[in-house]
Amino acid sequence: MLVDAFVELLDLWVVAAALIGIVSGIIIGAIPGLGPTMAIALLIPVTFTMAPIPAIILLLGVYQGAIFGGSISAVLLNVPGTPSSAATAIDGFAMARRGEGGRALRFALYASVFGNVFSCLVLMALAEPLARFALDFGPAEMTMLMLFALLVIVLFGGGSRLDALIMVLIGACAGSVGLDPISGTPRFTFGSFAFENGFQLIPVLIGLFAMSEVLLQAFDREPLVRDTAMPPLQSSVVRFVELWRMRATLLVSSVVGTFVGILPGIGSTVPAFISYNLARARSPEADRFGQGAPEGVAAPEAANNAVTGGALVPTLALGIPGDAVTAVILGAFMLHGLAPGPFLFRDHGLEVYAIFEALLLSSIPTVILGLLFFRVAIHVTRIQPRHLLPAITILAVFGAYSVNNSLFDVWVMLGAGGLGFLFRKSNLPLPPLLIGLILGAPLEQSLRQALLTSGGGYGIFAGSPITVGLAVLIVLSLVISLTLTLRKMRT
How is residue 32 annotated by DSSP? Predict the structure, then answer.
């Protein structure tokens, strides 16, 4: 299987897709205000005519490249290209101000590649066994699993728990539009045939993350990037011995990023700051942090890049997205006939392992392209997102229309964009809404199937060790969240 999967990667189109994805991701990540979620949502319709392997590799290349690319503007301008790069800016910008921007970018690049390789190895080790274990899940087990996933998003996703709960419920309600999954009767269609298929995921994704960004930039007159005096990037070298000295920091940060990334809805920003704080706490020279410590750049970059592999574990094995980006990628998998979940490895093992190996091997071009990109990085960071608005708008409209060749999907995209704009202006998080939309319909279907199987009795949710174990995890999550809240109130 592994050899056959590697042979698939030797195709010229696969190599080209990987290179184009990485380069595009680095550029998009380096432009403050843009990000991998928006870019991947726009590119999904572009992959309609592509084979599954190059299509997914293209999107994952954008994902990997954008997470690293966010560190470029964070280091050079103190403006994180992606939210997960905010921790990198603390020490990276301090290094750049004293003329060591090149060294800071190299530390970020090497740490990013280390975190990516580590998380890919974990992904390859855990995803298939987890999917094989999930084959034993019935409707009751799937119901408890999805309830646990949604609870983790609400309790530990960062920000207000009430806001996250509201957005999850909005997403779940939007997912109920269309035909009833059990009886097939129309629901909330208002007599319109177009509504019977529900809201298609791709137009909603494009609207929430691309069109809402267009509206935000159009109504925001304050530029994200200002012309600031910055010392020129000097040629610099990071020696292997310097990386070897911070090997424990890189490993701990990669472990944190990978396993926090596995938890649904957490994202890459939280593990980046956790790793930064852990590195500072472990360092004998903690006072250097904030003043330009290389470990302060390497730790968050290793963590936020390790999230990429970690977040794909529940996405591929269980069909539960780990963060907003993998929720978009989940839509791409479904679009190409690779439905994530327990049967993915059984039915499409060759494609999945080819994607795994591509993720691992993409570290080589990432290093080469990253080093080549440093010379033009400062010019890319000066690009204002508003200059790209016309192209983004056109791609959004054509992308939404091309899903089903339907103007209805364009109106859905525009409506989702308007709502996304209002939610973002109100500081309401979009990832919980998206994950609620994805999990709402299967949660309802599993719950009703379980109740039909048991004749309406709720005892089925206590009838197996798996459901009992998940119930214990739900209770523990509530207890931990309550304990953390009480501690915060006392301090």
Answer: B
Contact 328, 40 (CB under 8 A): yes
Query: Alpha carbon 141 to chain centroid distance?
Result: 25
Residue 443 domain flag: no
Alpha carbon separation from 410 to 205, 206, 209 (Å, rounded): 12, 10, 14
Question: CB under 8 Å to 446, separation ≥6 — which residues?
Answer: 139, 140, 142, 143, 146
Alpha-carbon distance of 188 to 316, in angstroms, equals 31
Residues 6+ apart with CB under 8 A from 7: none
| Percent of the chain scoring above 70 in pLDDT | 92
Reported as a single tens digit per residue, the pLDDT across 381-437 is: 666 666 778 888 888 888 888 877 888 889 999 999 999 999 988 888 888 888 888
Contact 306, 111 (CB under 8 A): no
Instruction: State pLDDT tens for residues 132-154.
Output: 888 778 888 888 888 888 888 88
60 inside domain: yes
Mean pLDDT, rounded, for 187-209: 83
Strand 178-179 versus strand 186-187 pairing type: antiparallel
For 102, phi and psi rounded to 5 degrees? -60, -45
> H or E element: which one contains 179?
strand 178-179
Total count of domains within the chain:
1
Average confidence (pLDDT) over 443-471:
84
Q: H or E stretch including 187? A: strand 186-187
Distance CA 442, CA 434 (A): 14
The SS3 call for residue 34 is strand
> Do the domain assignments include residue 16?
yes
Angstrom distance (rounded) from CA 296 to CA 279: 7
| Mean of the per-residue pLDDT values of the chain | 83
Contact 70, 109 (CB under 8 A): no
Angle at 168 between CA 180 and CA 302, to 5 degrees: 125
β-bridge mates for residue 402, sequence order: none
CA atoms within 13 A on the CB side of 94: 14
**What is the value of pTM for the model shown?**
0.81
265: containing domain: 2-171+236-388+448-490
**Residue 220 placed within a domain:** no
How far is Cα 356 from Cα 312, in angstroms, rounded to an integer? 10
CA dist 202 → 96, 206, 400 (Å): 40, 6, 7
Provide φ and ψ at 234, rounded to 5°: -90, 150
Q: How long a stretch of residues is the chain?
A: 491
